[in-house]
Amino acid sequence: MASDIPRPPTLRRSCQACARGKRRCDQRWPRCTRCQTRKIDCEYINIPLTVGSDTDSTSTATTTVTTRSTLSPKLPHKKPRQHYQLTHSIPLSLPLEITKGYPQPIIAYLVSGMRAYPSTFALNMKTHFIHPDLWPSPSSPPSPIRDIHTLCKLHSTSPTTTNTTIIPLLKQKSSSLLRTLNHTSSFEEMLATAQALLLAQCMLILSDPDTDTSSQAYSESISTMLYNLGQKLWQQAPIQLPGSLSPRRAWLFAESVRRTIIVGFMLRSVYSLKMRNYSVRTPFVDSLPFDMRTGLWDRDVGVDGDEGGESLDAMVSLHQYSGMLESGVVHGISEFGGLILAACRGRAVQGVPYPSVAGYAGY
């Protein structure tokens, strides 16, 4: 009978009540804010990634949260598709946000590294999270990317006019990008808009000490915006990519999404460190998937026809990767890896043990 046919699994993260009412769900655990306010039962098909708890803080109970990797490409070759999941145990007693304080040299390093993104992008339209080879024509990037590239060039070449000219333009552009983000027609457009918004925020909230913005008080709205940006990209990301993409472009797309989400949360943390000398992190950030093969990002397109395809062995959580960096398992830490190590662990590359020849992860 039809009723005996099992229903296919769903990746829905909203609770049942919010899904039926077509309302936004903040995915709090064990009850979302909307259900708690309405005093109704809150049931999840999949336990949300942002797991908090109202239970006693001494409880040792844990829950296993299974997440799909962001974007498992449907690659156009004969190799079998690779589908995989990352499983993490998150204690139910773990607070929704974790406060961390870092030494001043680490904060200065993070601010400097994130502040360099706009000037780097102005030179070659490429950063740790934006890759020009992803676009069908590198000379014709999406309009949000073109517009922010112009502002990045103006910002990097005219430092003396930053206060009077660039800052108002950046504020106006950020507001426009934020509005566009909620009305994009495709995920590709959403990704480009999010990337442009992150570059604009790097110039606005990580301004030089002599600019007006550095003297402003910490803005919770900026922190919330960066948090929601990462959540939105994660929730809207397609599970599979079209088979028409080459293995290289499919990998670049998936990696661009992963890196953009990570950089968004890193920027949120760095902003808090800069303004308040401590950062806030969530279990969701640590559970994000990460491809350890960071060298592929800068490798030439023409190297090996299958280069850049998804690999189960290369995928770990961001928490696992930062732990590998800290313990000296990764040989030859990249510049992006150095920022992740500093942001996630509060450590400098120079302070981690050098891996032995035997048994290191050569990524």
TrEMBL record:
Domain of life: Eukaryota
Occurrences of domain Zn(2)-C6 fungal-type (ranges): 14-44
Gene3D superfamilies reported in the protein's UniProt record: Zn(2)-C6 fungal-type DNA-binding domain (4.10.240.10)
Bias kind Low complexity: ranges: 55-72
SMART domains: GAL4 (SM00066)
Region Disordered, residue ranges: 55-82
Keywords: DNA-binding, Nucleus, Transcription, Transcription regulation
GO terms for biological process, alphabetical: positive regulation of metabolic process
One function term, GO molecular function aspect: zinc ion binding
Pfam families: Zn_clus
Protein name per Swiss-Prot or TrEMBL: Zn(2)-C6 fungal-type domain-containing protein
